[in-house]
Amino acid sequence: MGAPRRGAIAAALTGALLVLVTACGGSSSADDSSGGTGGEDEKNAKGGVELLISPGDGATDVATGGELRVTVEDGTLTEVVVTDAEGGTVAGELDEEATAWEPTEHLANGTSYTVEATAESADGETVKETSGFTTLEAEATFATNWNVPEDATVGTGMIMSITFDTPIENREAVEEAIRVTTEPEVELRGHWFGDQRLDIRPENYWQPGTEVSVEFRTRGVEGAPGVYGTRHNERYFTIGRHQVSTVDAAAKTMEVVRDGEVLRTLPVTTGEPGNDTWNGKMVITERLKETRMDGSTVGFDGEYDIEDVPHAMRLSTSGTFVHGNYWASESTFGSQNVSHGCIGLFDKQGANDPSTPGAWFFDNSIIGDVVEVLNSNDAIIAPDNGLSGWNTDWSAWGSGQ
């Protein structure tokens, strides 16, 4: 998944509109041309150009992919413009000989389109022709959801995660419709977790300063029989500085390293025996200056319910956070593991004391930063629990689940 990819588009010419252009620049409608070409010998004698638009004028229930195509014989295409009823245009490209044009994206369902094509003969004569058609209605649609804030600057551990609100059967077509380009260029791969989530990342952490653009072109893509996408827009983000914070659960410390420099080593508390913190690489996906943490939402029965947890940053979908802790004594941090699985830093109630370790780490972290846990008495976190795909080897990334 690197530069934009384009799926094969069938050259469906059934019901095509045929226009004959003579050497003197005259043109005829589809009906006139069918009655006045006089065969191949007459066309050659007149130096005619055949301009074909598929689907034909007035066609209905046209498929959103594989049917739209404009071709020319004995001439070249100089312009093809395809617009919908609201004036939106369809992106497309000519082949190297400028004899064929095809769209580079799917069409929208239940939409009327107009094709305006211009062809030129070898002696410079031109013809313009217009044709209209309507695409088929979708029986159902699927939404394409995205995890990176618009125009954000994120840490080098960011993984792009796209989720769908219905199972996707045609994964290849949907994946091809999500086009990611980067500057500088880097190889990217997509990995499916089940049939409703696609995560995309490079082999190693991003290079700081990388600019990423994502074109969502799932509109009109059939993700499952009769179920079509609707998204058609672009999103952009930038990779910021490289920060990895390593938590040693046995030593009860967290070393914060940015761009190769150790910023601070902070005392922490991690999961108590039986509620140990996950090992492995995790990514900050959410930052909350204060939030409520209710143990009943993650499987604990009334063990805690704290309304104002300060400086909380989410690391997993299952409820792992790195956060400030004001209810344990300051001496706990660095000496005991007493949490229910989170990584705790000494903090003050109200989240208004910038001198505390919890506040400092919050102020020095961004979405996409990596927190790696070592030496905890637990397994490595699952790669689909949060943005934990960095725990999957590159050789296995992309194989699907």
TrEMBL record:
Q: Which domain of life is it from?
A: Bacteria
| Gene3D superfamilies associated with the record | 2.60.40.3710, 2.60.40.3780, L,D-transpeptidase catalytic domain-like
- Indicate the secretion signal residues: 1-30
Could you name the Gene Ontology cellular component terms for this entry?
extracellular region
L,D-TPase catalytic domain: residues covered: 243-374
Q: Could you tell me which Pfam families the record lists for this protein? A: Big_10, YkuD
Q: Which UniProt keywords apply?
A: Acyltransferase, Cell membrane, Cell shape, Cell wall biogenesis/degradation, Lipoprotein, Membrane, Palmitate, Peptidoglycan synthesis, Signal, Transferase
Determine if Transcription regulation is one of this entry's keywords: no
User: Could you tell me which pathway this protein works in?
Assistant: Glycan biosynthesis; Cell wall biogenesis; peptidoglycan biosynthesis
Report the record's Gene Ontology biological process terms: cell wall organization; peptidoglycan-protein cross-linking; regulation of cell shape
The active site is formed by 323, 342
Coiled-coil blocks: none
Q: Does the keyword Ribonucleoprotein apply?
A: no
One MF annotation (Gene Ontology) recorded for this entry: peptidoglycan L,D-transpeptidase activity
Name of protein: L,D-transpeptidase family protein
The organism named in the record is Streptomyces alkaliphilus
